[in-house]
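Q: Given only this backbone (126 positions), what sequence would you predict?
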């Protein structure tokens, strides 16, 4: 890990049926097992139709180990009938997801549409 923000995962109850995981620091080969454990624990306590939100806004580094955790989370959520939502995906993280071919798998259509629309609206002044 680098000397940045220490790795943490805070779990919050959102509206009924929604759990929020607020992730901070580096998600790398050192911290990915902890994140994998938290995701697995929370997924085990959700019911079909519930939502697991992973907030990546505080993530400084997301390496292949971190991507692996997100893939695992998506596969488990699909199997369990739980919606997985990524929140506060940075432009750099989205770029990594696109280059690895994971954007369509991990990001919902609304997020992709908002990101595609955002720069155009900014350039038009809207």
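A: Predicted residues:
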């Amino acid at each position: 890990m680098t000397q940045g923000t220490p790795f943490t995962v805070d779990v919050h109850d959102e509206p009924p049926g929604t759990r929020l995981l607020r992730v901070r620091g580096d998600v790398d080969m050192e911290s990915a097992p902890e994140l994998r454990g938290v995701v697995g624990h929370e997924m085990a306590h959700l019911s079909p139709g519930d939502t697991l939100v992973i907030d990546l806004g505080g993530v400084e580094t997301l390496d292949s180990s971190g991507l692996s955790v997100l893939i695992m989370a998506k596969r488990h959520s699909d199997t369990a009938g739980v919606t997985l939502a990524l929140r506060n995906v940075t432009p750099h993280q989205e770029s990594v997801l696109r280059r690895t071919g994971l954007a369509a798998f991990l990001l919902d259509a609304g997020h992709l549409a908002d990101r595609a629309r955002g720069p155009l609206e900014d350039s038009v002044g809207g």
